[in-house]
Structure formats: structure tokens, C-alpha cells
Specification:
Layout: E1 2-8, E2 14-21, H1 35-38, H2 41-47, H3 49-56, E3 63-70, E4 73-79, E5 85-90, H4 95-113, H5 127-140
Antiparallel strand pairs: 1-2, 1-5, 3-4, 4-5
Helix pairs in contact: 4-5
Length: 141
């Protein structure tokens, strides 16, 4: 299974992206998107932003579950209190591991926000944040 994760800022700008494959059940962690699909991943996530904004006002949870579909791929969303959107493009139907992944990444994001040198809507270039996202991906997905 393959995943494409992105954090989208309040001005619909990408703050962080990460493409990976499953590490569970003997997976090697390498994304297996088709070559023609790989170039579309970012477009698919950004096109689902309208659906995320629609669903976020009808859902009381931060985790929005699956908000959009494209062919055999699904987009799951998570919205922070500051309206930062976490989007995950995937082909997996299990909701609980995705929720746990988003929760752990949200915790790492909040710690990044507490950095006095980080401003909202800045690209996230922290090596520690990247390591935490990768660890959460290996752990849950």
C-alpha cells in the first residue's frame, strides 16, 4: 500500500509532504504509486480541500475520516484548531490506524508550533518533525 501525506496551511499552501509505503506486514516502506499516478498525488490532495472545508463544519471531531475519493484512492483528513489541514492519500480502508497516525503527527505539529522561530504557514523543515512523522508512519501504517 502506498500513502501520500501533506500538511496544508491556512492559505492552502503546502507546509510539509511525505510519500511512503506501508511498513506493516513485511512492507519495505517504499511507495508503490504508478508512475502516471505519482505526478497526480499533490493535485488530488489539493482538489479535495473543498470537501475538507465542507465536512469540517459538519463534524465535531478533528479527524474527518475519508472526505474524498479518486479512482481506487481515498483522501482522509484531519483539521487542527488553527485550521491547518492534514491530508492522507491512501488505498487502505482501515480508519483506526489512520486516526492514530494523524493524532501522533498532530502532537508533533503542536510541538513544532511551540518553537519560537516557527511561524504559522511556514514550511516545516525540522529534521525532528520529519523523523516523528516517519516513525508514526512506520508504527501505524
Amino acid at each position: 500500500m502506498s500513502f501520500y501525506f501533506a500538511i496544508i496551511g491556512t492559505r492552502d499552501n503546502p507546509l510539509y509532504t511525505y510519500e511512503f509505503g506501508t511498513s506493516k506486514s513485511g512492507g519495505d516502506g517504499v511507495a508503490r504509486f504508478r508512475e502516471d499516478q505519482r505526478s497526480m498525488n499533490q493535485f488530488i490532495l489539493h482538489s479535495s480541500l473543498d470537501m475538507v472545508e465542507e465536512v469540517q463544519w459538519t463534524n465535531r471531531d478533528l479527524y474527518l475520516k475519508t472526505v474524498d475519493r479518486f479512482n481506487n484512492l481515498m483522501v482522509s483528513g484531519f483539521v487542527t484548531g488553527g485550521n491547518i489541514k492534514f491530508l492522507l492519500l491512501h488505498d487502505q480502508k482501515a480508519e483506526d490506524p489512520i486516526r492514530q497516525f494523524f493524532t501522533e503527527v498532530h502532537e508533533a505539529y503542536v510541538k513544532t508550533l511551540m518553537n519560537p522561530f516557527y511561524e504559522v504557514d511556514m514550511r516545516i523543515v525540522s529534521v525532528v518533525f520529519d523523523q516523528r512523522v516517519r516513525a508514526a508512519a512506520r508504527k501505524y501504517l
